[in-house]
Write a structure and sequence with these properties.
With 209 residues, the protein is α+β, with helices and mostly antiparallel strands. The protein folds into two domains: 104 residues, Sandwich (Jelly Rolls), CATH 2.60.120; 75 residues. Helices cover 44% and strands 30% of the residues. The chain has three helices and eight strands; from the N terminus they run αββββββββαα. The strands form two sheets. A four-stranded antiparallel β-sheet has the order 1-8-3-6, with no helix packed on it. A four-stranded antiparallel β-sheet has the order 2-7-4-5, with no helix packed on it. The chain is elongated and about 100 Å long.
């Protein structure tokens, strides 16, 4: 296999390893709110495809917000659909479903299906190929280029987090060291004071000379 083929195969394996797909389902009881949280890096495309099982009289609110409580997507009577947004900062996105049932009505659980994709997996390369008139090989190279950029960004983020944690550990170790020295000085001072105090006391009682 030539070197180019090796690189393409390696990147394809990495693509499978870091595929950012979140597909799940859960039951949503009446008048109950359930939320999913997802950490998203800056400038990352996020898409979601959702579908709820039928339930007459039920109205389910779908609300997607970031950690600043900005509304990224909202649907009052969610049944099925899609949403997409791009983050402008590193944030924690919260996807909430709240099932509302009229008072006096006996409701049943609704099953929620949601498929969340982000990064490279969220991009539609078919649309990119049509809009830019790209050939299949060019589309694959574009996808691998985006994947490589995502990998570099992930490594840069992990390096920054490692440096932050290292600084925190070093700061904590320094504080523990200073506190230990301070504690030892206090104990030695207290022990010395007790020795002199007892010596003076025993001398006043003429128990020692």
């Amino acid at each position: 296999m030539n070197p180019t083929g090796v690189v393409v195969a390696f990147l394809a394996v990495l693509c499978c390893m870091i595929s950012e797909v979140r597909c799940l389902s859960f039951m949503l009881p009446p008048n109950v709110k359930k939320c999913l949280q997802e950490e998203i890096h800056k400038d990352v495309l996020v898409t979601g495809d959702y579908k709820l099982s039928g339930a007459p009289g039920h109205k389910t609110l779908l609300l997607v917000t970031d950690r600043r409580n900005n509304i990224l997507y909202q649907k009052e009577d969610a049944e099925s659909g899609k949403f997409a947004f791009t983050t402008d900062i590193f944030t924690v996105c919260e996807i909430c479903f709240k099932n509302k049932v009229p008072r006096g009505m006996r409701g049943a659980d609704r099953e929620v299906f949601i498929d969340i994709k982000r990064g490279v997996e969220a991009k539609s390369y078919e649309d990119i190929a049509k809009s830019e008139a790209l050939k299949p090989l060019e589309v694959e190279l574009r996808r691998l280029e985006d994947l490589s950029e995502a990998i570099v960004n992930d490594f840069a983020y992990m390096k920054a987090r490692e440096e932050e944690m290292r600084d925190t550990n070093e700061s904590t170790n320094s504080r523990v060291l200073y506190f230990s020295i301070f504690s030892m000085v206090c104990l030695l001072s207290l022990a010395t004071w007790q020795v002199f105090y007892l010596r003076r006391y025993f001398k006043s009682k003429k128990l020692i000379e």
